[in-house]
Specification:
- The complex is a heterodimer of chains A (339) and B (537).
- Chain A is an alpha/beta fold.
- Chain A is built from 15 helices and 10 strands.
- In chain A, strands 1, 2, 3, 4, 5, 6, 7, 8, 9 and 10 form a 10-stranded mixed beta sheet that branches.
- In chain A, helix 6 crosses helix 7 and helix 7 packs across helix 15.
- The radius of gyration of chain A is 21 Å and the shape is globular.
- Chain B contains 22 helices and no strands.
- The longest helix of chain B has 37 residues.
- Chain B is globular, with a radius of gyration of 24 Å.
- Chain B starts with a helix and ends with a helix.
- The model of chain B has no long low-confidence stretch (mean pLDDT 81).
- At the A-B interface, helix 1, strand 2, helix 3, helix 8 and helix 10 of A face helix 1, helix 11, helix 14, helix 16 and helix 17 of B.
Chain lengths: 339, 537
């Protein structure tokens, strides 16, 4: 008993010494190696120490919400704009105001309300078997509900936030009824129950378990630059297709990895400095070349592999919609039986 | 008379201390229950209409498959190793223990990679024997396959429990039943298994807990269980109420199992005589030899050798690109926090169990069961219970940060893993006749002296195994560490997960290799100690 009390006191007193002047604290969902590199470069450049806690976006939001005004976090980083919308709605963020960032970032990707900024973006695309699918047969996301794809579509589970974001965009563009109809038909067209991650869907095409898959663009880049010869082979057996490119169509669904500034950020100036650095040409090039994402800074070119797929028309939807319709999307998935 | 009344007072004090400590441990669970009682039922309707059936079927089916295979992988080898003079017996005995060091999600990820279309097995057959490759080209991400994989990671719980029980049973029962004309087959099923039922059940209980809690592997295989449902409704839907509803269903399920296990144990309460004759190893006939080898070889080969070698092989291919200083730091973090927390867990377990044994009061034995409940609740849910609890305290009373401190992290570990520490110590205490303590009491020894002079020496081995198993579990721990860790604090498990979730299995391998290796070393030390106590010298 005494030991426990003692421990409590000791830890509490340790936790007290938390003030360190020149630092910035991140709650981040991004945990790629490239991020660590970016923070190290920033530290070298400015002498500001970057502290990170990494976990899932929703868990970090819970933590921010519960910590309230005592939260040590300055920045909240996610790989899904929908979560930034959620954090904004919960009143966890404050507006970001910086000339440099405004100049660095493509204005079309920015949050119209100014609560968060994008650092990279990715598209959720269709990949198809070279041998079994003709490019002419592919058209839009909506077209995947067509009966001709019965037993041919591969996609991961509906718990995955990228799928939730995609359906949110369909709800935003076409309304709830059509989205439910679409989901039901897609489920009818599944080649198998949803499972595995995005790479597994591509491998399943190579294995002949299905003919086309809905995946995030950068996974194809990762697959093609894999250490394993077999994975590269699998990556080469498929082709990339950007849906909804035609006249009057919405453009391919995109989602941003972005950052919000927390409401009670204790190191606001340092936080803004980090944001300015991460959107700079130097940092953006680092992102693009290691994670195969698209840059938020229009002055930076994507990676060679990604560039080969060509330019594409992006869905111009306000990305906040990806969060706004999130709950509807999950309810629809459940009703449609999308596991 | 005087001594007795003094002791009674002393025991009351211990009971009181017990009560307070258990309240502290149950606090996060109470927070959940509070939320459970004061919730609005609108959102749960959706789950009830669309998902609960799927969740229930999957949870039960998966648990059933895993239990079935854990029993097969665990009991039969344990019987053979305990009784027969099999070649390579000691080696098998070790190997059958080691899968404990492999986190179940790593087991699942590794096997699906090995068997995937681009994995080594299928590519080999494609290049060399195309006829067979078509046969192998299957979708391996199935619930049945997942059940077998989980069983491969978890069967050592059953193996260890039955191995110890089989050895302690000694030769008396076996000889007796043979004299009565039973074949060795009959002896095993009619005498040995019923006698070892409590031990096997307690091992199986841990298996069931682990399956109910599994998140990473289950999600990857697209199998929706109660636990994935909890995560989905809490995090994706932002609906803690439904999540808590589901968590409480899980809790009740476990409570039911608890009662069931207790019932079946209490009916068959008996004490092993510690000095019952240790069994002589039988020699094996030629025909049986091969089958016995197969039975022992299968689970150890697929449960440990294959995944370990695959991960080792991947690690070697990536080692040049690894930041070794970083690796060292992660090892230090993982080992440090695990040692510290398991130490605390053991101390707390001792306090509870010892009080229970000494006072023999129903209340204390109830408490020591209740605090094991945390093991049934997914780590993420415990963490959030703690965050809700402490944010209330923090925002009202303190100007300092508790959330994101080591204190809270360790607190959560204790709530979740106390059951792991308690279980081996308890099964040891049950075996000791009450007469030891009673004699000591009559000789006028106070509780602390009894503990020092009597319990500590005879429980030493149980304490070591409790410590080791808790340590290995903490080393593998993921969800709690992810949510509650302080700034810049990474462990081997979180690092493994970060790569695995980004679908970079090769990059993750070197970190999982160290989780497994450190776990192995600890388990080997434990095994040596256990063997001294069993028949093996």
């Amino acid at each position: 008993m005494k030991k426990i009390i003692l421990l409590l006191l000791v830890t509490l007193s340790i936790s007290c010494n938390k003030k360190n002047l020149n630092e910035v604290n991140l709650y981040s969902q991004r945990h790629y190696n490239v991020d660590k590199k970016q923070y190290e470069n920033f530290e070298k450049l400015t002498g500001i120490k970057v502290n990170v806690v990494k976990a899932n976006a929703d868990e970090l939001i819970e933590r921010l919400k519960n910590e309230g005004k005592n939260s040590p976090a300055d920045l909240f980083i996610t790989v899904d704009a929908g979560k930034l919308y959620k954090a904004t709605e919960l009143g966890l963020l404050q507006k970001i105001d910086s000339e440099i960032i405004n100049k660095n970032v493509d204005p079309k990707l920015m949050d119209p309300n100014g609560f968060w900024i994008p650092i990279t973006f990715r598209s959720r695309i269709i990949v198809y078997s070279k041998d079994r699918v003709k490019k002419e047969d592919l058209d839009t996301y909506e077209d995947l509900a067509n009966e001709k794809w019965k037993g041919r579509i591969l996609v991961r589970s509906s718990s995955n936030s990228y799928n939730q974001a995609l359906l949110s965009s369909i709800i935003a563009n076409h309304g709830l009824d059509l989205a439910l109809e679409w989901s039901k038909n897609i489920v009818q067209n599944f080649a198998r129950d949803p499972k595995g991650n995005d790479r597994d869907q591509v491998k399943a095409i190579a294995a002949g378990q299905g003919d086309l898959a809905i995946v995030n663009s950068y996974y194809i880049g990762l697959l093609l630059s894999s250490e394993k010869e077999e994975e590269i082979k699998a990556g080469k057996s498929i082709k990339v297709f950007f849906p909804n490119q035609g006249e009057g169509q919405t453009g391919s669904h995109i989602n941003a990895s972005g950052i919000g500034l927390t409401k009670n950020s204790p190191n606001k100036l340092n936080a803004i400095k980090l944001l300015e650095y991460l959107t700079s040409i130097e940092a953006q090039e680092t992102y693009v070349n290691t994670s195969f994402e698209y840059p938020a800074n229009p002055n930076v070119q994507p990676h060679e592999i990604v560039k080969e797929w060509g330019d594409f028309k992006k869905d111009s939807l306000d990305l906040n919609n990806l969060g706004k319709f999130r709950e509807d999307a999950i309810l629809i998935f459940d009703k449609a039986g999308w596991k | 008379m005087e001594i007795n009344s003094f002791l009674k007072l002393e025991y009351k004090r211990w009971t009181l201390g017990n009560l307070i400590l258990s309240l502290l441990i149950l606090l996060p669970l109470f927070t959940l229950l509070y939320k459970f009682i004061f919730f609005d039922g609108s959102s749960f309707k959706h789950i009830f209409e669309n998902l609960i059936f799927d969740y229930t079927i999957n949870t039960f089916y998966l648990t059933l498959i895993t239990c079935f295979f854990s029993l097969i992988f665990g009991i039969f080898p344990a019987w053979i190793i305990s009784n027969y003079n099999l070649k390579g017996r000691l080696f098998y005995d070790l190997l059958l223990f080691l899968p404990l060091s492999i986190p179940s999600y790593i087991m699942a990820f590794t096997y699906s990679d090995i068997l995937s279309f681009t994995g080594p097995v299928q590519s080999f057959f494609r290049d060399n024997l195309p006829q067979i490759s078509n046969f192998l080209n299957k979708d391996f991400l199935q619930i049945e396959f997942l059940g077998i994989l989980l069983a491969l990671a978890l069967f050592p719980y059953v193996y260890t429990a039955s191995r110890i029980s089989f050895s302690y049973l000694g030769s008396n029962y076996v000889n007796l039943s043979k004299n009565l004309g039973l074949s060795s087959f009959q002896t095993f099923f009619k005498v040995i298994l019923p006698l070892s039922k409590p031990a096997i059940l307690s091992g199986l209980f841990l298996v069931i807990m682990e399956v109910l809690n599994e998140y990473g592997a289950v999600k990857y295989f697209g199998v929706n269980t109660y636990t994935t449902g909890i995560f989905r409704s809490w995090f994706s839907m932002g609906d803690p109420d439904s999540a808590i509803q589901l968590a409480c269903i899980l809790l009740f399920l476990v409570l039911f199992l608890f009662v069931f296990e207790n019932k079946s144990n209490s009916k068959k309460k008996f004490h092993f005589k510690v000095n019952s004759k240790i069994q002589k190893l039988n020699s094996i006939g030629k025909g049986k030899n091969f089958i016995f080898h197969l039975i022992c070889f299968f689970p150890s080969f697929f449960g440990f050798i294959i995944p370990f070698c695959y991960i080792l092989f991947n690690s070697i291919s990536i080692i040049e690109k690894t930041d070794l200083f970083e690796l060292l730091k992660l090892i230090f973090n993982s080992v440090g926090i695990s040692v510290f927390s398991s130490f605390l867990i053991i101390i707390i377990s001792i306090i509870f169990l010892f009080t229970e044994k000494l006072t023999k009061s129903k209340l204390n034995s109830f408490i020591s069961q209740l605090i094991s409940l945390g093991y049934a609740i997914p780590g993420a849910v415990i963490s959030l219970g703690l965050i809700i609890l402490f944010s209330g305290i923090q925002n009202n009373f303190f100007s300092i940060t508790i959330i994101g401190s080591f204190f809270l992290l360790v607190y959560a570990y204790i709530v979740r893993f106390l059951a792991v520490g308690i279980s081996p110590i308890k099964s040891n205490l049950i075996k000791q006749p009450d007469s030891l303590n009673d004699t000591a009491k009559n000789l006028g020894l106070g509780p602390i002296k009894i503990f020092q002079k009597i319990q500590l020496p005879i429980s030493k081995l149980a304490l070591i195994s409790a410590f080791t198993i808790t340590f290995v579990d903490l080393l593998k721990e993921l969800p709690i560490t992810l949510i509650l860790r302080p700034f810049n604090f990474d462990t081997l498990a979180t690092q493994t997960y970060q790569f695995a979730i980004e679908e970079m299995l090769i990059e993750s391998s070197i970190y999982s290799l160290f989780i497994i290796s450190i776990g192995c070393i600890m388990l080997l030390i434990l095994k040596r100690n256990l063997n001294k106590d069993l028949d093996v010298s």
